[in-house]
Amino acid sequence: MRINGKHYRSVWVDEDGWAVRIFDQTKLPWALEVLRLEDDAAVAHAIRAMQVRGAPLIGAVAAYGVALALRRDPSTANLDACVERLGQTRPTAVNLAWALGRMRAALHNLPPSERVAAAYAEAAAMADDDAETCRRLGAHGLPLLQEIARAKPAGEAVNVLTHCNAGWLATVDWGTALSPIYQAHDAGLPVHVWVDETRPRNQGAALTAWELGRHGVPHTVVADNAGGHLMQRGLVDICIVGTDRVARNGDVANKIGTYLKALAARDNGVPFWVAMPHSTFDAGVADGVAGIPIEERAAEEVTELTGRTADGRLETVRVAAEGSPAANPSFDVTPARLVSGLVTERGRCGASEAALLGLYPEKA
Asked: Is pTM, for the whole model, over 0.85?
C-alpha cells in the first residue's frame, strides 16, 4: 500500500538478500522506523513485543524467521526447534501455526544443503500469496460497499465502522477488513471510516488511522464505546472487522471489544461482516467460544498509556489508580449467530460450517 504516494509491503528481504525488514509498529504513528531482523530470536522478539502484529503478517514474518534460523544451522533438529520456539510467541492467531506448519512440511524432507534456499523461496511465496489473497478478498468485499452507495443520495459517503487494525500493516499488503475500503476509495466511491481507538493498545487510533490517513481515506477516530451510539443515530452503514481465527462453526476471534460491536450491530440492524483470508480459517476448532485460546497480555497495557507531549516527547503515564490490579484479555470471540457473513479471497459466505466448508472443501 501507499505511504505518501510510495508503495510498501509490511515485510521484505533486505538488499543483502537474506536479512528481513519490517516496520516497527510500536513506534507508529509517531515515527516510521524500519527494523532489520537477522535471526529467528529477533523474529520471536518482534512478534512477542508486537513490533510486528496482525495475524497474516505474523505468519509471513515467522516463515522468514525459519529461513533465518536455517542459515545458522540447517539441521532437522534446528528446524523443529525453531518451529517450536516461534510457535509459542502468540497463541490466538492461527496464521502463525499455519505458516510454521507449511514451512516444516516444505523443508523437512529436503537435504540440509537445500533447505536455506527453499526456505526463502517458500516464505516469499507465502508473502506473495497473502498479498494476492488480500487483494482478492477486497474485490469480493467491494460490492457490499457499492450496494450501500447505490441506495444513498449521490455523493453521500458510505460509513464503515471497523475495530483494531486489519489494514496493510496487519498483512503483507492491502489488509483484510480495510482492503474493500481501499479498493472503494481508489475506485472513487465516497467512503468514510469510523475508527475505534481499540484499547488497551490503541491499534485503531495509532495504526488504522495512520494508514488510512497516509492513503487519503476520510476517517474519524472514536472512543471504543461510541460505536453503539453511532449505530443508533444511523451513522454506521456497515461494520467490517478482521479476525485472528475463525472456527469451523463460524465463530470469530478478534481484538477484544469486537463482540460488543457485533451485539450493537445486531440490535440496530447494521450488517456485521468479517474479512477472513484462508490462513485464518481453523477447521480443527469446532466451537470458537469453547476452543479458541485467548491471549492474556501484561496488565501494564491497561494501566499505562504512551503518547506524544506538546513539546514532541513520547511519555508513558499511568491512567489507573495506584495499587489496582488489571486484567488484559487481548481477544474475544463473536458467536457466528451475530456475523452477517464472511468475506474471503474465494467469495462471500455465511458464518456456518456448511458455508465455510463449501468454500474450503479441502479443509473438511
From this structure: yes
